[in-house]
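Please fill in the sequence for the structure shown.

STRUCTURE ENCODING:
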């Protein structure tokens, strides 16, 4: 069964807040799985606080991004925009190694696959989009997350280099199923 996640684009003064993942040392929007008994909105606010230290107010539902056929389990990620209302920036040990705001026109090139589109949709004011994102690794069987981490650890490459050479070069096919701007 596919997972359900809440993703948050925290926007302030022409900048978006990103976290740098511990597993591959690439940047991404904060977010994570919805827990039992928790709404999507509650999950988004909790994940923002856990991963960035920032309390947020959700401002808009951007859309649903279904990541299918990737090396991880299939997941339906619901993207919200938010504005900060308190707290202070901090990392989440074991999950993130950095957290920082980036101007819209200076996003890092080392972004987790699929997140550039999500950020662009949030910035552009998109509402109600439904996107199917399919990832195909060339010459690789579809490894589980555990197998991928084992490949990473055995490669001898720095984490970010492994991601950029083995995962970021994957083919991502995006199919917009519903677009309501």
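FILLED IN BY: designer on duty
SEQUENCE:
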């Amino acid at each position: 069964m596919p997972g359900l996640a809440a993703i948050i684009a925290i926007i302030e003064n022409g900048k978006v807040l990103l976290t740098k993942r511990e597993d591959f040392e690439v940047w991404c929007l904060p977010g994570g799985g919805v827990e039992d008994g928790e709404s999507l909105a509650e999950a988004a606010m909790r994940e923002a606080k856990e991963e960035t230290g920032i309390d947020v107010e959700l401002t808009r539902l951007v859309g649903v991004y279904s990541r299918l056929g990737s090396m991880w389990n299939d997941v339906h990620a619901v993207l919200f925009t938010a504005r900060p209302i308190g707290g202070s920036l901090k990392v989440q040990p074991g999950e993130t190694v950095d957290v920082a705001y980036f101007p819209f026109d200076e996003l890092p090139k080392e972004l987790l696959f699929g997140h550039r589109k999500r950020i662009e949709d949030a910035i552009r004011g998109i509402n109600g989009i439904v996107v199917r994102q399919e990832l195909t690794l060339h010459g690789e069987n579809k490894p589980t997350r555990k197998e991928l981490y084992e490949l990473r650890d055995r490669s001898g490459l720095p984490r970010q280099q492994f991601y950029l050479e083995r995962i970021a070069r994957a083919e991502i096919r995006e199919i917009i199923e519903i677009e309501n701007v």
